[in-house]
Amino acid sequence: MSVGFVGLGNMGQGMADNLLSKGADLTVFTRTQSKIEAMIDKGAKGAASISDLTSKVDVVLVCLPDVKTSRDLLLGDDGVIKNMQSGQVAVDHSTVDIATSRACSEAAESVGGHFLDAPISGGPGGAADGTLSIMVGGSEHAFEIANEYFAKMGANVKLMGPSGAGTAMKLINQLLVGVNTVAAAEAFALANSAGVDIKVAADLLAVSWGGSTMVGRSAPITANETLKIPLLRFGTSTKTWASSNNLQAMKA
């Protein structure tokens, strides 16, 4: 089988590199021609357009920075789904809203294809290391087809349920990230005001029930009084939390 990848940004570049280094027959497309050429130099194939890419591969993976870009590329007149081949699987690794994921699934089915929402967690480091968590929504059949590529990019890959379930899980994860980040900031502020050494507090919390991934990430930033280690891009976080607001409405 062969795979196409669209979007060689902060996350997509590392994901595509792992696919290539682990033996995938890879074709790439992105708006920046120099990035395509760099991947060709590494051994990948390049596509001139979305329609060119979909004509060459069995599975199309997409990783884009926001809902609008993802929706336009997947559902637009010149998008992935309008150019799908029968039986082809399209996968969106972007963080979007549940309605977008379900709309993509319905559109893909209408042209004889398959769609998986498969957002990711782990940051650029996880993308580069091939240790991402991948939360997948869609049919078991489509998951079985695409899973060989997920395994090359992620260490924790789970089929969460039907269409939209992967996106729902990512939004839930991001809600917890936000809540825990705020809680960690408040906790360290309280510790500091009480005269507690922040570095000692972080060491203690790391082996206590009050610890968490976000506490561990917040501690060095707080202790050094620096924001040189970004937890989240604020704009991206705001959009993600806004998307999370429709979780309750989409339950049914």
Helix share bin:
40-55%
- In percent, how much strand structure appears in the residues? 15-25%
How many H/I helices?
11
CATH architecture of the largest domain: 3-Layer(aba) Sandwich
Outline: elongated
Total strand segments: 9
Number of domains: 2
For the biggest sheet, the summary is: 6 strands, parallel
CATH superfamily of the largest domain: NAD(P)-binding Rossmann-like Domain
Descriptive overview:
The chain is of the alpha/beta class and 252 residues long. It folds into 2 domains: 3-162, Rossmann fold; 169-244, no CATH class. The chain has 11 helices and 9 strands. The strands form 2 sheets. It has a 6-stranded parallel β-sheet. The protein has a 3-stranded mixed β-sheet with strand order 7-8-9. Helix 2 (33-42) links the parallel strand 2 and strand 3 (45-46). Helix 4 packs parallel to helix 5. The longest helix has 29 residues, at 165-193. The chain is elongated, with a radius of gyration of 20 Å. Mean pLDDT is 91; it is low at 227-232.
Please specify the SSE layout and strand pairing.
Layout: E1 3-6, H1 12-21, E2 26-29, H2 33-42, E3 45-46, H3 50-54, E4 59-62, H4 67-75, E5 89-92, H5 98-110, E6 114-117, E7 120-121, H6 123-129, E8 132-137, H7 140-153, E9 154-161, H8 165-193, H9 198-206, H10 213-224, H11 234-244
Helix pairs in contact: 1-6, 4-5, 8-10, 8-11, 9-10
Question: What would the keywords be for this entry?
Answer:
252 residues, Rossmann fold, alpha/beta, 51% helix, 2 domains, 3-stranded mixed sheet
